[in-house]
Amino acid sequence: MSTSSTKRRVSVTIDADLLDAIDQFSDNRSAAIEEALRLWRVQKIQEQLQQYYQSRRQADVEEEEQWATLAEQQLEETLEAEEL
């Protein structure tokens, strides 16, 4: 994960209890909130991937399995031909 040297100052409103909890665990609010946002972003991407894979049609899944089988066969043939 890259850390950008370009940062922007923002103003947000945060629940007081949540802010107190952040202060208990970190001396650096900005760093704690940045880390929380990074984790949130990863979670959202994972949710999108899960939604995509769960919404695929069965025909698409079967076609992908056929392509995977073909790729495995070709790899085996190539390795055998090159005696690897």
TrEMBL record:
**What GO biological process terms are annotated to this protein in UniProt?**
regulation of DNA-templated transcription
- CDD domains assigned to the protein according to its UniProt record, in alphabetical order: RHH_NikR_HicB-like (cd22231)
Q: Which Gene3D superfamilies match?
A: Met repressor-like
Q: Which InterPro entries match?
A: Arc_rbn_hlx_hlx
Q: Indicate what this protein is called per its UniProt record.
A: Ribbon-helix-helix protein CopG domain-containing protein
Q: Which organism is it from?
A: Halomicronema hongdechloris C2206
